[in-house]
Amino acid sequence: MKVIRLLKNKFVGFILLGSINTAFSFFVYYVLIKLHLFYVIANLIAYIVGIILGYTLNNLILFKNEIKHFSFFRYILVYILSYSINFMLITALVEWFSFKEISAQFICVIIMTILNYFLVKLFCFIKVID
């Protein structure tokens, strides 16, 4: 099983699971934009969906910790920071540089994926020594 071997490398696994999460979150964002929801609200809703799905995928498959409120709280803090950065980037791209909402979010996804990997790995899924 090549996928199982790839998941043993945390970065590759994070990218694979993150791709699933990102594709689903981006789909949510896309649908909301097509329904004429304001891009900032669409982005917030997609981020909330992504937080829940991403935490579940990373926790149960990649980092294999039990779900704990403490790590989920840390995960939420990371994604509040992530959302804040994404909000500033997407707003700048749309409002100042006249990017389309979907193109702007696509650029943000690339930047945020790299940042989120390091933040999640270092801050959320730390092995605790008993």
Write a concise keyword list for the protein shown above.
130 residues; mainly alpha
Can you walk through the features of this model?
With 130 residues, the chain is mainly alpha-helical. Helix content is 82%, strand content 0%. The chain is built from five helices and no strands. The chain has helices at 2-8, 10-34, 39-62, 69-96, 101-123. The longest helix is centred in the middle third of the chain and has 28 residues, at 69-96. It starts with a helix and ends in a 7-residue tail after the last helix.
List the helices and strands and how they pair.
Layout: H1 2-8, H2 10-34, H3 39-62, H4 69-96, H5 101-123
Helix pairs in contact: 2-3, 2-5, 3-4, 4-5
